[in-house]
């Protein structure tokens, strides 16, 4: 296939947790992995019918439509989650707040990550300890 668009390249480096986006071999941007994601986008027509499409998005990335318009929400959601899992990137539902989001990568230093409990320092006191290692 011949195209007049310059060649674009997106590299996901999971070992370092970063992505690299270039056009014609020139770096456009690079950054942490949490800035690249698959989104289920919602569109509607004049008759208020809902259509969904899967889009690869990211910070300073041109949105790339992976799957065109479909009225089948469940299939599109399944496919979006599948693609995100295989690429090991985040998945976001069409709603801004949704329990259907799948977040695999969080910003470094984020304290909002569910399941991550920050370690408290200075809470263990040897003199008042109820724990006896010899029991």
From TrEMBL:
The protein's matches in InterPro entries, at most eight in alphabetical order, are given as: TMEM249
Give the superkingdom in one word: Eukaryota
Entry protein name: Transmembrane protein 249
- Give the organism the record lists: Ovis aries (Sheep)
């Amino acid at each position: 296939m011949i195209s007049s668009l310059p060649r674009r390249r997106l590299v996901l480096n999971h070992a370092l947790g970063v992505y690299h986006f270039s056009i014609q071999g020139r770096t456009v941007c690079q950054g942490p992995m949490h800035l690249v994601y698959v989104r289920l986008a919602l569109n509607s027509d004049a008759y208020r019918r809902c259509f969904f499409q899967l889009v690869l998005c990211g910070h300073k990335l041109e949105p790339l439509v992976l799957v065109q318009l479909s009225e089948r929400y469940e299939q599109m959601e399944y496919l979006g989650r599948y693609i995100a899992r295989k690429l090991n990137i985040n998945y976001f539902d069409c709603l801004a707040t949704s329990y259907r989001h799948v977040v695999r990568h969080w910003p470094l230093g984020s304290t909002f990550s569910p399941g991550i409990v920050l370690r408290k320092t200075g809470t263990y006191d040897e003199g008042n300890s109820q724990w006896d290692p010899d029991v």
